[in-house]
Design a protein that fits this description.
The protein is mainly α. The protein has 10 helices and 2 strands; from the N terminus they run H-H-H-H-H-H-H-E-E-H-H-H. Helix content is about 75%, strand content about 5%. Helix 6 (about 95-110) packs parallel to helix 10 (about 205-220).
Length: about 230
């Protein structure tokens, strides 16, 4: 228990440092909130990759995620954490993120601690989502509206390619084998549905829909996978 408590406090300190760095970039270096928000988004996911290594029980993850959900909720209520919240659109993304991380850890726990059920959805959320948003804003090629959200073909294409690469590399690293042909189709299936989830989810709900779609897609393609 002491080890879990120590690691939880260590992780909490790392997250506070990440938020502080985001605030420093926003207030002192005048980096736009959309950029600092994506920076914190990616950093949050990268730190979350340490959870299975440092915490051996989902209750500690729940404690950590719930604590930061409360902090983020208070920041919205009292107009704080401008580096995350000073955007010109409605978004529940910051509050949805802790829910997604805890949900992924639960999936990992109940699937016999199979790493892919945690690392793949977290990495796709942490990397593909901000890449898609930034590329879509930088090169707004062929915008489209779906389910009330405005996206771009460029952003969706970048999301798909990066998600496919993440799943491929994650599987290769986790199994130390070259992916078989059937696996490649499974990777494409997972990346495609994660892309669809991102496209149809507005107002920050993609922070939940993306990782949960990856988990569901992993279940659906389990019979395709070979080591």
């Amino acid at each position: 228990m002491e080890t879990n408590l120590t690691h939880t406090l260590y992780l909490a300190g790392c997250y506070l440092a990440l938020f502080s760095l985001g605030e420093l970039l926003y207030h002192f270096f005048k980096v736009k909130a959309e950029i600092t928000r994506k920076f914190v988004h990616a950093g949050t996911g990268i730190l979350a990759l340490l959870f299975p290594l440092l915490l051996d029980n989902h209750w500690w993850v729940l404690l950590l995620c719930a604590s930061f959900a409360v902090i983020l909720l208070c920041s919205l209520r009292f107009d704080m954490l401008k580096s995350i919240n000073a955007i010109d659109r409605k978004s529940v993304g910051s509050l949805a993120y802790p829910v997604a991380v805890y949900g992924c850890y639960l999936s990992y726990s109940y699937q016999g601690h199979q790493a892919i059920y945690y690392y793949l959805p977290i990495m796709v959320l942490a990397i593909s989502d901000p890449l898609a948003a930034l590329s879509g804003k930088t090169w707004p090629w062929k915008p489209y509206r779906i389910a009330g959200a405005t996206k771009t073909v460029m952003g969706s294409l970048v999301f798909f390619i990066s998600a496919f690469f993440i799943v491929w590399v994650g599987w290769r690293y986790g199994n130390v084998s070259h992916p078989a042909a059937g696996n490649v189709w499974a990777f494409a299936f997972i990346a495609l549905w994660a892309t669809v989830a991102e496209a149809v989810s507005g107002d920050g709900y993609d922070n939940v829909s993306i990782p949960f779609t990856v988990i569901i897609s992993l279940f659906l393609t389990a019979s395709w996978m070979t080591i």
